[in-house]
Amino acid sequence: MNLYLFAFAVITLAAFAQSVSGFGFSLVAVPLLAMGVGPQPAVVAATVVSMCMNGVTAYAHRRHVDVPAARRLLLSVLLGLPLGLLALRLLPDYALVAVIAVVTLGCTVIVWRGWRISPTGWALRGAGLLSGLLTTATATNGPPLVAALQAMRLEPRAFRATLALLFVTVSPIAVVGFALTGLLTPLAAAVAGIGLPAAALGGWLGNRLFASFDASSFRKVVLSALVISSLAALANAATGLS
User: Fold this and answer.
1) Model-level pTM?
2) Contacts with 166 (C-beta within 8 Å, 6 or more apart), sequence order
3) Contact predicate 95/143, CB 8 Å
């Protein structure tokens, strides 16, 4: 399959999964894209596309944003960004693929099991710091924030809007970091460019078909797909090691 056609299909699937389940764009997109274009372009492209998607969501649902909750998390998220950028820059490709796979598996377990953290203190700061690190290292930054916002007991509309606002606030800083460190390559930019219409298509399909699915059952299907993509990424990392 053509590389860009593969990227289009992966991003369409990832956007569809997020529109149906409310999460999981990068968890689906990054491990699969990494096998086609390499981990660094996959992380950068997924961050750019996710930034645009979350910008649309944050604007559309701006009245439901819980500003105090976002403020409590934002500083620690920002502190984690340079650490993840350093990891993305220094780790070899096979190690990045392995990290992406392990993070995806771990995040899948966290979301599947519905684990929660304390909404105050060091646990909350740690969730924000980990999310910031994962933003620039693997682009799979959602689950720590999901756990933190669940712990704050936000109602669904506020939860979705606040999460989108955090993503769209942090993502441009990550993209600037990618550009300054030479990670925003022509390949990453091309995949991101192809990914924007793919994300629009996947989101439209997901919104159209959402009413036809049992949300709980389909969420399990999405999570199962995350496990499969993680195992595939681990196999790819093992191939790189050998």
Assistant:
1) 0.83
2) 70, 73, 74, 77, 145
3) no
